[in-house]
UniProtKB/TrEMBL annotation:
Keywords: DNA-binding. GO terms for molecular function: DNA binding. InterPro entries: SpoVT-AbrB_dom, SpoVT-AbrB_sf. Pfam families: MazE_antitoxin. Residues 1-44 form the SpoVT-AbrB domain. Transmembrane segments: none annotated. Coiled coil: none annotated. This is SpoVT-AbrB domain-containing protein. NCBIfam families: lp_hng_hel_AbrB (TIGR01439).
Length: 71
């Protein structure tokens, strides 16, 4: 079981890192949803072109956009 240090840091178990291919120095993204943290290894190029055909909506705020994605 991991513990949170005084600096609010958590050590990831090595077997989890090996399973996900996480190495020292890798970047990760952390999301919070419904009281849970989700950690995802960031990899270069995975989302390339993903939003190429999405047109921006200028009549909606960033906060409204984030809330509509959650509900």
């Amino acid at each position: 079981m991991s513990k949170v240090s005084a600096k609010r840091q958590v050590t990831l178990p090595i077997d989890y890192c090996e399973t996900l291919g996480i190495q020292p120095g890798d970047e990760v993204e952390i999301f919070i949803y419904d009281g849970h943290l989700t950690l995802v290894k960031k990899t270069s190029g995975n989302a390339y072109g993903l939003l190429r055909n999405v047109k921006p909506k200028f009549d909606i705020s960033d906060e409204e956009s984030r809330q509509s994605a959650i509900t």
